[in-house]
Specification:
- The chain is mainly alpha-helical.
- The chain folds into 3 domains: 3-56, no CATH class; 64-114; 115-178 and 206-229, no CATH class.
- 56% of the residues lie in helices and 6% in strands.
- The protein is built from 12 helices and 2 strands; from the N terminus they run αααααααααααββα.
- The protein has helices at residues 3-6, 16-29, 31-39, 48-56, 73-85, 92-99, 103-113, 117-120, 130-143, 145-157, 164-172, 209-229, and strands spanning 180-186, 191-197.
- Strands 1-2 form a two-stranded antiparallel sheet.
- α9 runs antiparallel to α12.
Length: 230
């Protein structure tokens, strides 16, 4: 290709998809004509799709500034992976430039998508926010990936409707008791538990040290998530 054509793509790079389009235009118009058109184009701030459209003389594609409120982190990470596979971009920075996605938020979404699939499957059918995803990452750092997966398997083995907070609590290690209510209160320096259950059930409801840790971990993760929302 003439230097005038290749220089248009100095910032976006000539990838497989770009090369196919340039060959198509060369076959359609001839190399000399493609070069003349390239010499009249200002490539500053243009995506490779826009540049190809300008070389062909057709309206450039409309850039869509995607909003996060309607797209879960898992969906966004999948869209990024699809773009990599089709050579639309090769880095997060390039994807952010082309689509308008926030780069740091995209990085958070990709990190969330790398959580164990058995954990993510617990949230199928419901919208997972960035805050919930980051809480899951925090739980994994706290209890370890092996225990997180074990807790997720236990939830799959006892399927029932659970709220997001109930899922997070259980993944952190807090047990799910249907015959006991548990309230946790906290001050800047203290955490207190209030357990309520029938006396005849007391023997079966005794909890051990690991369960207490689980409740505390779940409570702390939830508290951090609420603070991030504010």
């Amino acid at each position: 290709m003439p230097e005038a054509v290749l220089s248009l793509f100095s910032s976006t790079k000539v990838r497989d998809a770009t090369a196919r389009e340039l060959i198509r235009l060369e076959n359609k118009f001839g190399r000399d004509e493609v070069q003349r058109r390239a010499e009249r184009i200002d490539a500053n701030g243009r995506s490779w799709q826009e540049l190809v459209a300008m070389l062909e003389g057709v309206p450039p594609p409309v850039r869509r500034r995607a909003e996060w409120k309607d797209v879960s982190p898992i969906e966004r990470a999948s869209q990024f992976a699809d773009g990599l596979a089709s050579n639309l971009w090769s880095t997060m920075a390039e994807a952010a430039t082309i689509t308008g996605w926030d780069r740091s938020t995209l990085a958070r979404a990709i990190a969330i998508s790398k959580l164990p699939s058995i954990v993510l499957s617990l949230f199928d059918g419901s919208y997972m926010s960035l805050e919930v995803g980051e809480t899951l990452i925090g739980i994994q750092r706290t209890v370890g990936e092996e225990r997180l997966i074990r807790n997720a398997r236990a939830l799959h083995d006892r399927p029932k409707r659970r709220s997001t907070d109930e899922l997070l609590n259980a993944l952190a290690g807090a047990r799910d008791y249907s015959d006991m209510s548990l309230r946790i209160r906290a001050t800047p320096t203290k955490i207190s538990f209030e357990m309520t259950f029938n006396v005849e059930d007391a023997r079966g409801l005794l909890i051990d040290e690991d369960e207490v840790k689980g409740y505390i971990q779940a409570f702390l993760m939830s508290s951090r998530r609420e603070k991030r929302k504010k």
